[in-house]
Structure formats: structure tokens, C-alpha cells
Amino acid sequence: MKLLTLLFLSTFIFASDILTNYRINGIDEIEKQMDLELSQKDYWDKYLKDKDTTFGYIEAYKNILTCNKEKSTLNLYSKNENEKFQFRKEYSAFTGKKKGDKLTEGDLKTPIGIYSIVQKLSKETNLNEFYGPLAFVTSYPNIYDTYRGKDGSGIWIHGLPIKQERDEFTRGCIAINNQSIECLNKNITINKTLLIINSKELKKNIDKDTISSILSQLYTWRYAWLYNDIDTYLNFYSEKFVRNDGMRYESFKKYKTRVFKKTEKKTIIFNNINVIPYPNTENTFEITFKEYYKSDTFSFTGDKTLIINIDTNKNIKIITEK
């Protein structure tokens, strides 16, 4: 009873402070206070306490596919009724003829990375029988692939030839038998499924303190963006930053400095946030989210991706974005 009383009093005091602030300064000041609170690590520590961080922090996806190239397996995990990722099925898989990460078109390697599934192909869409009854098209190359100069395309998860034999390897795709591809099709929704490919077993149960630190800094970056703090905003960018369209750090810095001088009131909302450690790296993460942005002169609603590096003090630096 004593604990409940204390919780009630602390909540009342906090609400009372907000109400007083609103009475004196208006709603804009309350918004600013809330925006600042979202940048505090304490908030994210508490928020993540009971969240599943098996693969990182994931809001947007219900299914995770993990491919272990070393073991030639494709595993399916799905969120259960408690919003926890639960192992569902392991499929035997063929991957690229050559080992290592894909670098260029025709190198016969399966890429290592994080990919969404962007399309499903079947006989109704004139899929060649060589690829079995179904194929799922991935988003390779992603923005981190592009940043590192990798190229190529056409990385799919597909079945096996219906009327002919095939080799026990692919030109870079992931192939599973036709019964398995049909089973997979019944158990996933493509826009709610993420594919993570690694050369070996994927690291699981990601440290919540690291994720909390990243999320608090993401919202500090947002706070600086909202309130035109150009120095704090740019401090989140690496000098090796290259935007997905090729704009390098110095040009980006000049461009953003001009934009921030407008001092417009902005609305910036992030949802469907995902923070995932990038496979085969030690300190690189992919952050994706749905962004809603509105100012007096510009509006945008769409997908945003940041690739970040973190240092030993867990400070983040953005190396590319789209």
C-alpha cells in the first residue's frame, strides 16, 4: 500500500508540474519537455525492461528469418502472444557456390546483411520453373551495401527446379526445397518479415543497455533536429558520412546548416522503430523507422534508415542514411 501511495504521489507531482508549466507557458513548452524526456536513457531503460531483444529492438516485424551460411540453414522465428520471438522452423538451404560476403554481380556469393522482403513471385507472375513454385525477392543491395561499394541484384529466397536437377549451391540466392517454400509462404507476411544473413550462427539476446543507449541518442538527434541545434545534430554524423544519394559530409553539413537557419516549427514523429546489430560486425547497427516530418515548407512520410557505428563509450556516429 505504501509503495502504491508513493507511485501515485510521484505521478501526481509529475502531472501537476506539467499542468503548471502548461498554465504558465502553453502547449509548446510542454511538447519541448516531452521531447527532451524521450532523449533520456532512464526512460528507455525502463521501457525496454520486459521487451524481447533476441535480435535487437524490433517494432515493425512479426517474423525473423535467419540464414546461417556455414550450416546451410534458414530458420524462422515468429512473435508469440507475449510479443516474444519464438523459434518455429528450420529449413535446409542451399547458398552461394563461393564463401564470403557478396561484393559484386556474378561473384556467386550470398550477401551478409539485413534485408526486407519486397515481393513474392509465383507462376501467376510468370516465375521460371527453375526457381520452384515460389520466390521471395529481397532488398539487396541495402544502403550499407551501397555505402561499401557492393553491387549486384536479384537475391531471392526460392524453391528448387520443378522438372530438372540442380547443383547443391546457388549463384547467390537462398534455395530451400519446394515443400519448405510452400510452408514458409503460409507462415509469413512479406511486409512483416525480415531476413538476416550471416556467415555463421547469429548473435542473439542483444544487450539492452546498448539498445537503450542507442534509442536515447536517436531521440537526442531528433531533439536537436526539432529545435534547430545544428551543432548537436551534426555531432551525430561521422566525417566519413556519405548519404545514400552520394552527398558527402562537408556538403551535407553546409546543406543542413542552411536548412536549420530557417528556424521553422517542425513536427517529427518516429514509429515502427527497429535497432538491429549488423551481422559480421562488432559495432555497427541498422536503425529503421517510419518517419513523419512536417514544417512550414516541407512534409514527408516514409521509411528512414540509418547505419551507425558505436564507440567503446556507446556513442553513435551515423555513417550513411536514406
Descriptive notes:
30% of the residues lie in helices and 28% in strands. The protein is built from 8 helices and 13 strands. The strands form 2 sheets. It has an 8-stranded mixed β-sheet with strand order 4-3-2-9-5-6-7-8, with helices on one face. Strand 2 (63-68) and strand 3 form a beta hairpin. Helix 1 crosses helix 2 and helix 3 (41-48) packs across helix 6. The longest helix is centred in the N-terminal third of the chain and has 24 residues, at 2-25. The radius of gyration is 23 Å and the shape is elongated. The relative contact order is 0.15.
User: Which fold name fills CATH's third level, the topology of the largest domain?
Assistant: L,D-transpeptidase catalytic domain-like
Beta-strand portion reads 25-35%
Mean pLDDT rating:
92
Strand order of the largest sheet: 4-3-2-9-5-6-7-8
Broad structural category: alpha+beta
Overall number of structural domains: 2
Structure summary, number of beta strands: 13
Q: Biggest β-sheet: count, sense, barrel?
A: 8 strands, mixed
CATH architecture of the largest domain: Beta Barrel
